[in-house]
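Hey forum,

I'm writing up a methods section and want to include a predicted complex as supplementary material. The small molecule is flavin-adenine dinucleotide. I've pasted the protein sequence and the SMILES. Can someone with a working setup run it? I'll credit the forum in the acknowledgements.
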Amino acid sequence: MTTGALYDAVIVGAGVSGLCLARALLEAGEGWSILLVDGAQDDDALRTLSFWTSAPGPLDALVRHRWTRLVIAEASGGARSVTLDSHRYQTLFFADLQRTVKDSLRADPRHRIIDGRATELVTVGDRVRVTVGDEVLQARWAFDSRFRRGTFEVPEGGAQLLWQRFHGLVVCCETDVFDPSSAVFLDFRGDLPAGTAFAYLLPFSPREALAELVSLEPIDAERALRAYLAKVHGVAALEVLDREAGSSPMTEQYFEPFEGDRIRRIGIPAGMLKPSTGYALTRILDDSAAIVRSLRERGHPMVAPPRRRLYRFLDGVFLTLWARWPATMPGVFSAMFTRVSADRVLRFLDERASPWDLLGLIARLPLWPFLRALLSWLARRLRRVAAKPEPAYNDTTMKRTDSHPPADRSP
Ligand SMILES: Cc1cc2nc3c(=O)[nH]c(=O)nc-3n(C[C@H](O)[C@H](O)[C@H](O)COP(=O)(O)OP(=O)(O)OC[C@H]3O[C@@H](n4cnc5c(N)ncnc54)[C@H](O)[C@@H]3O)c2cc1C
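Reply by user p_vandermeer:
Happy to help. Structure tokens for the complex are below, copy them as they are.
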């Protein structure tokens, strides 16, 4: 059944990027009508969203916790606390983002939220058709955040691909054990596998915290996390209030953001995940703002996210180091935060570093591990060039494509 309304925008997926874009479109105040296709989250998917920033941002009203001190700890037990000067590290709850955006959409009858999975998304002339159940709906532009984790891979011999596995517990302890003034940003202590796993801990109060284990290898995460909490934070008894889990692909591979002339990918399928950190929210917010700007100024949203080739190269070398010599990583992270100001490191990780920041940071990194990783990265690229030319891939399932980008897509 084809439904008559023509929406200005259909957003496929009510996850982080879908909700952030819907919010940005609503805030623009241009009266654009929005159809949000909510395919629903898995029960134990992402619960909290953390990021650092040095400026006011669009989600400030939703932020629940902020920290200006970060702890970085090597496996040997050496923990270092750094104070942020211009930045703050902050956390919001996904449920708050979901509730506020959906409430705003429901408040205006021009918008619609439809529950269900989109089974087809096709461009027909100057509109996009999306099929959800037995309904076919239409929009002028589509924003697609579907990502097929199960089938995602990078071309043979090309970019690195590491899967970052997250397992988080929101815990409540019987006694005061946490220091709410500091967020534990990177912690390799607690008998975690050397370099392939680390913990972070965001204390919401002296008794309550989100403890998260991030691992590159399959691991009994809950057991490891409980052991980490007992050994490093002295937690004797705890109650688990909530859980989150999921995985993210860390790769420097380019993600094509366009599918034809009317479908713009967003979120992970548009390359919004920072390859070397696994954080995406800041980039998603920047991308949403760029889409709104393009709609206003050019009348279409088909704006390309910045390519930033230098950062992709640095990410590639960094991921090579992590994949091949993981045991060096605790020392590398520790050196970064010891030798360079934390604000500078965060600017670098956010790809907002000045050339001066960049030079200062690279000059202070341990030379040998990165030199070795650079040589390995180069050898890999050379093997790839010798093997065959790079094919053009059209989506995250890595199918070949003959589709061409629309004419106007300058960043
Ligand atoms: C556990 C975990 C914690 C993370 N924590 C942080 C963090 O603190 N800070 C940070 O910056 N990044 C974090 N990330 C990384 C990143 O921000 C998240 O993965 C984020 O969810 C990416 O947003 P997205 O919109 O691309 O994907 P998603 O949020 O997964 O959204 C995609 C949506 O599309 C829906 N969908 C899929 N198929 C269909 C379909 N056919 N029809 C309709 N809908 C469909 C899915 O159900 C999902 O809701 C985390 C990742 C994980 C896994």
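Some notes you might quote in the supplement: Residues 12-18, 37, 39-41, 46, 48-51, 117-118, 145-147, 166, 244-248, 267-268, 278-281 surround flavin-adenine dinucleotide (CB under 6 Å). Confidence is low (pLDDT under 50) at residues 391-411.
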